[in-house]
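Technical note accompanying the year-one report. For the benefit of new consortium partners, we illustrate the data format agreed upon in the data management plan: each record pairs a sequence with a structure-token string. No post-processing was applied to the example shown here.
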Amino acid sequence: MPELNWIPATDDETMTEYLEIAFGGDGNVYIRENINPEKVVVTTEAKWDAFVLGVRAGEFDHFVEGLDAGGPPKDPEGTVGTA
């Protein structure tokens, strides 16, 4: 894995758990949790760009319904917590 500059996905210094993103310069984007840095997910820059555009377009809003009210995110498929 190339030498990476990890960028926290938050500027809230009170958060103890958050995602970190790194752009490898090799065409890949690396994603990890700050509390579990040895496990890294790798995707391509093209897929990352498509994801970011989808977020901006609201394509994933259903995953965060209820968060503003303090509730857990909704699971429209009923799959969270099932094996």
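Partners are asked to follow this layout when depositing records. Residues 6 and 67 are 26 Å apart (CA to CA).
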